[in-house]
């Protein structure tokens, strides 16, 4: 995620230089509502191993226990969506392949209050209800015995608040534009504003998303664009994805196709008459990805790209970063650093994801440090100048917001989880030297691809990989109330 903290990178560089029609089709459930015995027999034939790559170990969140559940592991989301701008109505059918992690009398998922048209579990009709942003499905489940939940729904999307005091904070979830389009950013949550979800990073899943839009419009989602048939755009994610990394954008977009390093297909979506000024910077994506690959190893997904939306911020949505075009004054250098920051998250946050939000620093520290390395390569400031700046910023942020390893629930994704862990990584880099540090970084992301990790696993990996005990350095930078002394 990029938000306010990127301003400090621009500030540092400046200091050093100066001394997402009514004709949209309706969606019907993909699972038949036939008699229960027949439906159960059909359900028994489902081969859930097809979605084995979506297996996770869901965890309860200490910061935000009201979101997500450790009782369900969603293996796969099949979302069939249709958007009618004139009516401001989203119609959807969500088919979830779910592995219960415990015996239970019902299933509970995160979901906004849409009107439920139909719901089935393994083909049998159930009366599902939505209250207090929870979908309650009264169907008993058995630990490790997968089930198929289908929910058909419709309604007007609404957003949900973000627990942060950042200057660029916006409501989370599916947002309707003035032109009748859609876009979403949803960290730490918000996917539940447009489909039933286990809206927590500890539960990664595979995705198939079909978006039907009016003629002349485009529908964009995370993952790879598989087909476009008429007004329906179909996307697939063969790498597991946390719900906050999914995206949806609908509007009158134009598509630019390109190739990245090693022939990686890249796509940039922009709106003519609105986003042209950003396109030259988006076209630099191959260079940004090359810069990151040299330090962190191969780009972790089969496709990449970016979509422009009406936000003040940006987001590392998987395989399709979301860039905000709502800005009073366009600063090209700032925007391009932001693009690189979001691409860096494809390694740190998307491929390797924190188990809980307490370890958001694992995402933002690495992406911010990668951004500083890029900025340094462009602006040519010295390691000492970077070190001095990071220490000054770290001291101020710890005083105002506390240490990055102990974030406060009301201060989600504020600057301390960006700059302070970036300063820690600079110390680790200094202690190891570039060759060993980037070997460590490459090994971390490549060996833990498509997994969820934590502070404990990161510390253990650093110590094992380097043959040195960096526990004290890591803990002091994550927990200390003041800036640690140089190692």
TrEMBL record:
Enzyme Commission number(s) from the entry: 3.4.11.2
CDD domains: M1_APN_like
Domain Peptidase M1 membrane alanine aminopeptidase: 284-477
Top enzyme class: hydrolase
Ranges where the Aminopeptidase N-like N-terminal domain occurs: 75-245
Record keywords: Hydrolase, Metal-binding, Metalloprotease, Protease, Signal, Zinc
Cofactor(s) needed: Zn(2+)
Pfam families: Peptidase_M1, Peptidase_M1_N
UniProt signal peptide: 1-20
Catalytic activity as recorded in UniProt: Release of an N-terminal amino acid, Xaa-|-Yaa- from a peptide, amide or arylamide. Xaa is preferably Ala, but may be most amino acids including Pro (slow action). When a terminal hydrophobic residue is followed by a prolyl residue, the two may be released as an intact Xaa-Pro dipeptide
Family to which the UniProt record says this protein belongs: Belongs to the peptidase M1 family.
PANTHER family: AMINOPEPTIDASE N (PTHR11533:SF297), PROTEASE M1 ZINC METALLOPROTEASE (PTHR11533)
Protein name: Aminopeptidase N
UniProt source species: Paractinoplanes pyxinae
């Amino acid at each position: 995620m990029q938000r306010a903290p990127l301003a400090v990178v621009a500030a540092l560089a400046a200091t050093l230089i100066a001394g997402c029609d009514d004709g949209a089709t309706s969606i019907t459930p993909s699972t038949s509502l036939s008699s229960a015995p027949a439906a159960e027999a059909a359900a028994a034939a489902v081969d859930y191993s097809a979605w084995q790559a979506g297996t996770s170990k869901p965890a309860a969140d200490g910061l935000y226990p009201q979101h997500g559940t450790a009782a369900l592991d969603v293996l796969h989301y099949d979302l069939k969506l249709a958007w009618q701008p004139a009516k401001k109505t989203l119609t959807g059918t969500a088919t979830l392949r779910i592995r219960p992690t415990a015996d239970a009398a019902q299933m509970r998922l995160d979901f906004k209050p849409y009107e439920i048209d139909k719901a089935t579990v393994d083909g049998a009709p159930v009366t599902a209800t939505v209250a207090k942003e929870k979908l309650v499905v009264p169907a008993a489940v058995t630990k490790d015995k997968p089930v198929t939940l289908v929910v058909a729904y419709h309604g007007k999307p609404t957003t949900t608040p973000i627990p942060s005091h950042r200057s660029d904070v916006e409501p989370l979830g599916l947002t309707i534009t003035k032109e009748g389009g859609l876009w979403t950013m949803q960290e730490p949550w918000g996917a539940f504003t447009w489909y039933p979800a286990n809206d927590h990073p500890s539960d990664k899943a595979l995705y198939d998303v079909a978006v039907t839009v009016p003629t002349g419009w485009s529908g964009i989602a995370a993952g790879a664009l598989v087909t476009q048939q008429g007004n329906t755009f179909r996307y697939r994610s063969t790498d597991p994805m946390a719900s906050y990394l999914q995206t949806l954008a609908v509007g009158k977009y134009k598509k630019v196709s390109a190739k990245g390093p090693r022939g990686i297909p890249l796509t940039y979506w922009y709106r003519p008459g609105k986003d042209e000024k950003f396109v030259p910077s988006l076209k630099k994506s191959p260079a940004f990805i090359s810069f990151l690959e040299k330090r962190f190893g191969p780009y972790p997904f089969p496709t990449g790209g970016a979509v422009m939306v009406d936000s003040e911020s940006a987001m590392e949505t998987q395989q399709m970063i979301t860039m905000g075009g709502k800005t009073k004054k366009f600063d090209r250098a700032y925007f391009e650093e932001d693009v690189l920051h979001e691409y860096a998250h494809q390694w740190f946050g998307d491929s390797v994801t924190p188990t809980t939000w307490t370890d958001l620093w694992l995402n933002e520290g690495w992406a911010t440090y990668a951004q500083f390395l890029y900025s340094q390569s462009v602006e040519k400031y010295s390691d000492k100048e970077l070190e001095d700046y990071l220490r000054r910023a770290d001291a101020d942020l710890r005083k105002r917001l506390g240490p990055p390893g102990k974030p406060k629930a009301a201060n989600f994704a504020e600057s301390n989880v960006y700059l302070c862990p970036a300063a820690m990584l600079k110390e680790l880099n200094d202690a190891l030297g570039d060759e060993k540090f980037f070997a460590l970084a490459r090994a971390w992301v490549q060996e833990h691809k498509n997994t969820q990790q934590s502070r404990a696993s990161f510390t253990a990996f650093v110590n094992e990989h380097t043959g040195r005990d960096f526990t004290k350095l890591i803990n002091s930078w994550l927990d200390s109330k003041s800036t640690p002394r140089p190692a």
